[in-house]
Write a structure and sequence with these properties.
Shape: elongated
Radius of gyration: 19 Å
Structural class: alpha+beta
Order of helices and strands: EEEEEEEEHEEHEHEEEE
Number of helices: 3
CATH class of the largest domain: Alpha Beta
Number of strands: 15
Oligomer: single chain
CATH topology of the largest domain: Threonyl-tRNA Synthetase, Chain A, domain 2
Strand order of the largest sheet: 2-3-7-6-5-8
Number of domains: 2
Length: 239
């Protein structure tokens, strides 16, 4: 099973690893440890390169499988054999933009839950922009403006972002740990990773984040839509 380096250090840009398996049909390699995020929770998978024998092999995306994280290389790329030592390098500008964006989504979620008690029903993101769906019966232009002011106040508050990995039983003692309408955590997961925006938001989350809300930068609510009677969508962008 791949050691998930990104879970404890989202800022790790380069790492050493050993190839544990290859898949010629998928042009992919499995590593014993990886800082590549395989996607999930609305955040896209990382890309970058694996450096092997002086050559930079393009990693088009990482994906999670039962054995660990597979690194899908560009078609036709020569695959290093099992046991080979490689250096992984994350596409850092893209990853950092996604870290800022994901933390922005947690700020939005935290503000909406704190101020209006609305649960999340869906979400998606790309670098520096994303959308989140909430259980709102009505959402007006004036209310959206209030939310935009509130989220930027939390950015300016420079709240520390803290990571913890807790036994499942301990994690589920935390009130409102799951902010989505449906609990998507499989029962076989024994330890739960949590992300806390100190004083604002604490929830289960497995992806990558910045160290402080100030790193997010200014958030702009650029649009909102009704997606059903009690489902409203908010779109945000970062400067």
């Amino acid at each position: 099973m791949t050691e998930l380096l990104y879970q404890t250090d989202s800022y790790l840009r380069e790492f050493q690893a050993a190839v544990t398996a290859t898949n010629a049909e998928a042009c992919a390699v499995l590593l014993d440890r990886s800082a590549f995020y395989p996607g999930g929770g609305g955040q896209p998978a990382d890309s970058g390169v694996l450096v092997w024998q002086g050559a930079a092999l393009p990693v088009e995306r990482a994906r999670k499988g039962p054995e660990g994280i597979w690194h899908a290389l560009a078609a036709g790329t020569p695959l290093p054999s099992a046991g080979a030592q490689v250096t992984g390098q994350i596409d850092w500008p893209r990853r950092y933009a996604l870290m800022r964006t994901h933390t922005a989504m947690h700020i939005l979620c935290g503000v909406v839950f704190r101020d209006f008690g609305a649960l999340v029903t869906g979400g998606d993101m790309e670098p520096l922009h994303g959308r989140m769906d909430f259980e709102f019966e009505s959402l007006t232009k004036d209310l959206v403006s209030v939310i935009e002011v509130a989220v930027n106040r939390e950015v300016a508050a420079a709240r520390p972002v803290k990571v913890a990995i807790l036994p499942r039983e301990e994690a589920f003692q935390i009130p409102d740990l799951i902010r989505t309408k449906i609990n998507l955590l499989p029962p076989e997961i024994s330890h739960i990773r949590t992300i806390e925006l100190a004083g604002l938001d604490l929830q289960a989350d497995g992806s990558t984040h910045v160290h402080n809300t100030a790193e997010v930068g200014r958030m702009r609510v650029v649009d909102y839509k009704s997606k059903g009677r009690i489902n409203k969508r908010i779109y945000v962008e970062l400067d």
